Each structure stands twice: as structure tokens, then as C-alpha cells.
# Entry
Amino acid sequence: MRTSRLIVAVVALAATTIAVPSAATAADGGAATWRVTVTNLTPAGSQPLSPPLFVVHDRGVHVWQVGQIASHGVAAIAEDADNSVLESALPQLPGVRAVFTGAGGPIPPGASATYEVTAHRGARVSIVTMLVNTNDAFTGFDGLRLSGRHTVIETMAYDAGSEANNELAAFIPGPCCNNPFARSPEGELIRPHDGITGVGDLDPAVYDWPGAAARFTFERIG
# Structure
């Protein structure tokens, strides 16, 4: 079973910055701006990451949790890289300050993309991004507290539990298969993903990943 690691470190950042909407309002005291670099750690040719969904929120708000049923919005991302459901629904919830999709398109294996997030003091951030050559694998985290000046977190892949891992091309939206919005419903809980096992059309030697799926680097810049 893959494990996740939380590492706090000073890191050098070399990716191009992509501007995104501000997560703070004029009423938020002590706002800070963070440069967030998302690095795809999967092997070359395996799993592009979909444009990540960012949610800035207060303590006590959860976008997703291991051991819980994935919401319709989380399942939409995990199955089809469709961020629109959560972008529409989450801003209506108490404690949610901002919801946006990182600009710039998918992040290829081995590549990075960098975004900026402005958040109030003590804010939490949650991120969801799909491993697109899968049925319903995603990575990210729920409720990371923004503190300190440099934070690095590496995340494993999770199974949304909303679609069966049949590994059939007819149900996979990524460039390996190009079949979005085709479902084989499962109804399980969010859990660590088993990876590509070879039960269907996908070759594990090409599409599996050996460890962490992504690295998220936060650097406070203002």
C-alpha cells in the first residue's frame, strides 16, 4: 500500500507562475499570498494530472475525506476531470472563501505548474486533481493549514470509490483512451488507490506509478 509523506522544507522553485483569482476579500485581516507549485511525480508517459481545483476555506470545512463517500463533485473530478460541479456548489457553503481551477491545462508526468493563492490568516486549502489515465484516481489533500513560509507535501493517489477500476479504455477519459463521461458505478468509500494492475486494457508497465503521485510546494511571498 502506498503511503503519504508530509515534509516541511526550504525549496527552490523554478516553474512559471500562473495568476489565479484572489482567495481573500477586503474584510479578511492578515491575508497572505502563497506561491503553490504542483509537480507531477508519476513516470514519463503514465498519468497526466488534470488542472487542479483549489478550495480555500475555514477550519472545519471538508472537501473530501478518506473513508467517506465521495461527493458528486469530487467524483466528477476523479472520473472525468470535471471541476465545474464543485466550482458551482462549494461557494454556496458556509466557510468556503474561494474555489477556482488552476489555469494552464493538464500537468504532464515530471512537469510542474505554479499558481498563486491569497488567503486569510489561519485558512485551510484543499486540492483535488485527477490522474487522467485511470477510472477514478485522484490526488491532493483536504484542509491543509497555511502556516510558516515553506511547506512541501507529497501525496499518494486515492480511489474515489465512485467507479469500478476495470481499467477498460471505454471508461477512461485521459489521452490513453479518450472516453470521458462513461461510467461503471461502484459505490465504495474513498481509499488509497491500488494503482494500475493490468485487469483491463492498460499496461501497468506504462500507466502505473510506484509511489507518491504529486508534490505540492507552498512558498509565502506576501
In short: The chain has one domain: 5-210. The domain at 5-210 is CATH 2.60.40.2130 (Immunoglobulin-like).
